[in-house]
């Protein structure tokens, strides 16, 4: 089961069209979403999370359509979203913040409180459960954000640039988080970082100008790198080949 866009059009207020009748389905498993600044990645993820509604067309997760009122709550329980900014709730411990997120998604209070522990464990933060969320580093706070999506047993987790601004050690730790997360949910991650695609992801989607320029396996993506691409920089070369000249 995956998120499917059907003839999806989106514009912000009276701005230009960001997406114009976009139709595609994200693959299952671990998918990385690439694209230059302004390509529409955050817009696509926010639409997939039902945080935005398309101006026209539809977004579905399996049989669930978030535009149908009675399906919205189920949709949001199935599809977790980690936006670019994760904020620590002042005065809350990590466990409280994760439980609170579950409660907001409709879980019973006790169920959310109990479920917060394994969710934090899955992102490697069990030991920090009783620490104030505001005392965590940026990378740890994003892992709390991931735990917030896991507490309500999401089947798909969307992450918008989760590694932006993280140092190399935290990026590596986040990679492990994605790997562990993918044992229980499908994962879609938008990023500008291409260096470790092969180790982490199964599929690549490249978006530019609101259209899908590439959708396929990491191996098919890697094969797009021109012969002679520098070792370790094949993904960068493949990305440049997909976008052609003149784009980032
Ligand atoms: N809240 C908003 N109001 C108006 N326009 C917006 C808004 N958010 C995004 N846009 C516009 O929509 C287009 C797509 O932006 P989006 O943030 O989805 O791209 P992106 O691929 O995530 O970019 P980046 O890599 O820089 O984060 C851009 O032209 C952007 O200016």
Automatic annotation (TrEMBL):
Name by which UniProt lists this protein: ATP-binding cassette domain-containing protein
Keywords: ATP-binding, Nucleotide-binding, Transport
Matching InterPro entries: AAA+_ATPase (IPR003593), ABC_transporter-like_ATP-bd (IPR003439), ABC_transporter-like_CS (IPR017871), ABC_Transporter_VariousFunc (IPR051782), P-loop_NTPase (IPR027417), RLI1 (IPR013283)
GO molecular function: ATP binding
PROSITE patterns cross-referenced by the UniProt entry: ABC_TRANSPORTER_1, ABC_TRANSPORTER_2
Gene3D superfamilies in the record: P-loop containing nucleotide triphosphate hydrolases
SUPFAM superfamilies: P-loop containing nucleoside triphosphate hydrolases (SSF52540)
């Amino acid at each position: 089961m995956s998120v499917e866009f059907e003839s999806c059009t989106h514009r912000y207020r009276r701005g230009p069209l960001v997406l114009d009748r976009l139709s595609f389905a994200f693959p299952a498993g671990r998918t990385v979403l690439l694209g230059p600044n302004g390509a529409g990645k955050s817009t696509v993820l926010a639409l997939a999370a039902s945080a935005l509604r398309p101006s026209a067309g539809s977004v579905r997760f399996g049989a669930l359509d978030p535009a149908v009122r009675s399906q919205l709550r189920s949709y949001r329980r199935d599809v977790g979203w980690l936006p670019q900014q994760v904020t620590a709730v002042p005065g809350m411990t990590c466990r409280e913040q994760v439980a609170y997120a579950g409660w907001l998604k409709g879980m019973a209070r006790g169920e959310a409180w109990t479920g917060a522990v394994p969710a934090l464990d899955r992102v490697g933060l069990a030991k920090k459960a009783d620490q104030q969320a505001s005392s965590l580093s940026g990378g740890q706070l994003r892992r709390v954000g991931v735990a917030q999506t896991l507490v309500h047993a999401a089947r798909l987790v969307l992450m918008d640039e989760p590694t932006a601004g993280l140092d190399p050690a935290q990026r590596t730790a986040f990679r492990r988080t994605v790997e562990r997360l993918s044992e229980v949910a499908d994962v879609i991650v938008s990023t500008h970082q291409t260096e470790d695609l092969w180790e982490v992801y199964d599929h690549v989607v490249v978006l530019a100008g609101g259209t899908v320029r590439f959708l396929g396996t990491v191996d098919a993506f890697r094969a797009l790198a021109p012969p002679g691409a520098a070792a370790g920089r094949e993904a960068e070369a493949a990305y440049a080949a997909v976008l052609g000249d003149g784009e980032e």
